[in-house]
Design a protein that fits this description.
Distance between the termini of chain B: 15 Å
Low-confidence stretches of chain B: none
CATH superfamily of chain A: MetI-like
Largest sheet of chain B: none
Number of strands of chain A: 0
CATH architecture of the largest domain in chain B: Orthogonal Bundle
CATH superfamily of the largest domain in chain B: MetI-like
Shape of chain B: globular
Number of strands of chain B: 0
Helix content of chain A: over 70%
Mean pLDDT of chain B: 88
CATH topology of the largest domain in chain B: MetI-like fold
CATH class of the largest domain in chain B: Mainly Alpha
Oligomer: heterodimer
Shape of chain A: globular
Structural class of chain B: mainly alpha
Structural class of chain A: mainly alpha
């Protein structure tokens, strides 16, 4: 639907324009928010001056480590849990309440155990991300048609080969949904931890800028986190749609 | 799965988690952890202290308000977009994008917009819960069988009657799943809002305990939140399953 896309873009543009107008006319004060156009200019200045590049690289790198390890271990865990229905039955209530646990409460404990380096924040991001991968992968594994599994048994594939060649590829779109959440959760974990207690990183810089009324640093950094997460999210979404479209043609 | 099997599974999970916790405590020790027994006894102590109650009621009020807003706005958006294919095509991707952004990063903006205190944490909780409720409702309403809608139109139901008598009952299982997830996210959103943007409530109690390295308070407040969340979402999950089973 072309019209829908046009309407969406028009409404979003109107919203940004409205915000810009409110800021420019002073309805929203300069201490509250910068005009969106200023944010872009400030972000460009921030990136070219390079003062915060180390913090940006550190935070995005840590979130990347958390995300990739959560996806890999989450896939393994999901395959294992799927093979053990009783374990799964026991874990279901845990998965259902998992995201109501204030994970950041364990951050001080991790700092005591591992020091004030990157590791505690990576662990928080990892713990938040992994369950999203597990739950969505399980959802995908549940939908593998029986005929595929029977065929696999007829050609005598091993358990590992079945997972690698049949069930995981079939579950790919669902896994990708999990990966999208994993991206968001690893960013939440790492940046949130840096808000609480850290010596550098984007979360630390955002909190520092907030405390110093430095909107010219704070808004560009927030904008950047949002842009990075939305870009990754839509890239994975496009991949997901391509897989589903290819499948639709085969069926 | 029988209800009895479900209870047994939950009990086994609880026992396993307690054993794991106790083992971790034995390995790591007093420096970073408290044992389950110490945590529970400190929690009982907290409930006896008059200074704890204002924090608890503050959080309960903030969470209640956030949940009301998230439910009302989420259902409204869900029905509006669910009933129109065009509107859903235009705005559902925006909701999905908003759902996936790391919302903690927005806390300074929420703070600057709402100030330090109750409105900020209500807003923070509501933005966490609203989107999943809306997305699930859209999906539920969209998948209502067309014959129901046609029957409703034949009976000349008004828009409101259509929502109340046809759409809501037919889409209930899906909507309820949205509310279940919205509950968890609104709760964690409210607590996060309190951690970063408040001087009262369980979240800020947690945050100041983190600053003071007061393990007793950290562990018992976390236990309280988790126990509350687990109990409610356990009940919601059971209702959810029953609704889906009946719908089949």
């Amino acid at each position: 639907m072309k019209g829908a896309l046009a309407l969406r873009l028009a409404v979003l543009a109107a919203l940004v324009g409205f915000l810009e107008a409110l800021c420019r006319t002073g309805v929203i004060g300069a201490f509250t928010m910068q005009p969106p156009s200023r944010m872009l200019v400030d972000l460009w200045k921030l990136l070219t001056s390079g003062t915060l590049n180390a913090a940006i690289v550190k935070t995005l790198g840590n979130a990347g480590i958390a995300c990739v390890s959560a996806v890999l271990l989450g896939l393994l865990a999901a395959v294992a849990i799927h093979a053990l229905p009783r374990l799964r039955e026991a874990l279901d209530p845990l998965f259902a309440t998992y995201y109501a646990i204030p994970m950041f409460a364990f951050y001080p404990l991790l700092i005591i155990l591992f020091g004030l380096g990157s590791l505690p924040s990576i662990i928080i991001g990892f713990m938040l991300a992994i369950v999203a991968v597990i739950v969505n992968t399980l959802n995908g594994l549940d939908r593998v048609p029986g005929v595929l599994l029977k065929t696999a048994r007829v050609v005598r594939l091993s358990r590992a080969a079945i997972a690698w060649r049949i069930t995981l590829p079939f579950a790919l779109p669902y896994v990708l949904t999990g990966v999208k959440f994993a991206v968001a959760y690893s960013l939440i974990g790492v940046i949130g931890s840096e808000f609480i207690m850290a010596t550098d990183g984007m979360g630390y810089e955002i909190a520092f800028a907030y405390n110093n009324f430095d909107n010219a640093t704070m808004y560009p950094l927030i904008l950047m986190v949002l842009v990075v997460s939305i870009a990754l999210n839509s890239a994975i979404g496009a991949w997901e749609r391509r897989v589903l479209a290819r499948r639709g043609r085969q069926a | 799965m029988s209800a009895q099997g479900g209870w047994r599974a939950s009990a086994m999970l609880l026992a396993a988690l307690l054993i794991l916790w106790q083992l971790l405590y034995l390995v790591i020790g007093d420096i970073a952890l408290r044992s389950p027994l110490q945590t529970v006894s400190h929690l009982v102590e907290l409930f006896g202290s008059p200074r704890f109650w204002p924090h608890l009621t503050e959080t309960v009020r903030a969470f209640g308000a956030a949940m009301l807003i998230a439910t009302g706005a989420g259902l409204a958006i869900g029905f509006l977009l669910g009933l129109s294919r065009f509107a859903a095509a235009a705005f559902e991707p925006v909701l999905v994008a908003l759902y996936s952004i790391p919302k903690v990063t927005l806390y300074p903006i929420v703070l600057l917009a709402f100030g330090l205190g109750m409105p900020a944490k209500i807003a923070f909780g509501a933005i966490h819960g609203l989107i999943p409720i809306a997305l699930f409702t859209i999906n539920g309403v969209r998948n209502v069988r067309p014959v129901f809608l046609k029957t409703g139109r034949v009976l000349r139901l008004s828009r409101l009657q259509m929502v109340r008598r046809v759409l809501l009952p037919a889409a209930l299982p899906e909507i309820f799943s949205g509310l279940r997830i919205g509950f968890s996210l609104t709760l964690i959103g409210t607590i996060l809002g309190e951690m970063f943007a408040s001087q009262r409530g369980l979240g800020s109690l947690l945050m100041s305990a983190i600053g003071l390295h007061n393990l007793d308070v950290i562990m018992s407040v976390t236990l309280l939140i988790v126990a509350f969340a687990a109990t409610v979402s356990g009940v919601l999950l059971a209702i959810d399953r029953r609704l889906r089973f009946r719908a089949r």
